[in-house]
Amino acid sequence: KMPVRNVVSWSAMIACYANNGRPFEALELFRDMVLENNDSFPNSVTMVSVLQACAALAALEQGKVLHGFILRRGLDSILPVISALVTMYGRCGKLEMGQRVFDQKKEKDVVLWNSLISSYGIHGFGHKAIQIFEEMIDNGVSPSHVSFGSVLGACSHAGLVEEGKMLFESMVKEHGVYPTAHHYACMVDLLGRANRLEEATKIVEEMRIEPGPLVWGALLGSCRIHCNVELAERASQRLFELEPTNAGNYVLLADIYAQADMWREVKRVKKFLKARGLQKVSGRSWIEIERKLHSFMSVDEFNPHYEQIHALVFKLSTEMKEKGYVPRTDVVLYRLDDEEKERIVLGHSEKLAVAFGLINSNHGEPIRVTKNLRLCEDCHTFVKLISKFAEREILIRDVNRYHHFQNGACSCGDYW
Ligand SMILES: [Zn+2]
Ligand SMILES: [Zn+2]
């Protein structure tokens, strides 16, 4: 243990966790800091890190507590704190609160504008994101790399192909900002999702920098959506060279082969994974109930609530089946019988977290779940139906964007 703990050493530790993908630990440490409470009051630096952790976890209730603390201690005059607050609300699915915090701040820097643009982007409000981007320029603030990343991402989530292309072209011409691999990846994603794979490939071929894993990954992702085996093989070949230990790429390729009913190839890819000792990241979802985060792994028999939740998921699925739900067992990449596949699909972490939310929250309260990977097709259909028949608003943030389920439909328009 550190002999003397002061606000600087606490903040450094919390920032270290928050910036290294360990938000759970960051929040825990912050709690310890507040509890210990001997004169080490959190300052603005601490606040930014803790807000980042809340944003990563979509821990809205804890984020709100921090907001109150920030106001009481007068930290709301500090721009980075305000930007972190806007981002936190956006990533926790409370866009209107983020907008309000943004509006209250009179002088705004590019970071604050970016926070709002990306908030609208991940919720699929592409036009709104573009509008704010333009407002920023009208206010005399020059867009940065990050601004373009956010606004292009917003176009991609909303399927705004022409708008995205125009913005991309304006980068160098009008703003002197040279695209990085991230911007190219956004464009490939935008075109790829819209099934304009030829144009996407052309972008990759004509890049003025080396297309890294980001760009090839975006291309491979597009191939999954449109089941293009040939292009997928090309993209994954490059990815295997660039990131030999990233299991996700192999899984994605296997997924594409499975969609194309090429089971021998699925087997080959899996064998390769096994031989290299690589393991895919397992699906994990979490939900905040009364300021406490509850985390679920797929088919999580270790979770103390598992039996109760699984029984509910099973009951729900039986009811949904009567209403037309057909489990998408094809998302399971194993050759098992359908019953076994169905058991796996019903045990997906996002279903467990949603069911836990249904049990532990009041009717009328929206359910907010966060998932570490992309939401699968089956869970998407399942949650759409639940939102209708349980009459619940359900928000799920996956690794790419927000899905806002209401009355049987999703805000992504089934395009994600
Ligand atoms: Zn699923
Ligand atoms: Zn959706």
From TrEMBL:
Pfam families: DYW_deaminase, E_motif, PPR, PPR_2. PROSITE patterns: PPR. Keywords: Repeat. PPR repeats lie at residues 6-40, 109-143, 144-179. Residues 324-416 form the DYW domain. Gene3D superfamilies: Tetratricopeptide repeat domain (1.25.40.10). It comes from the Eukaryota. This is Chlororespiratory reduction 2. It comes from Pelargonium hortorum.
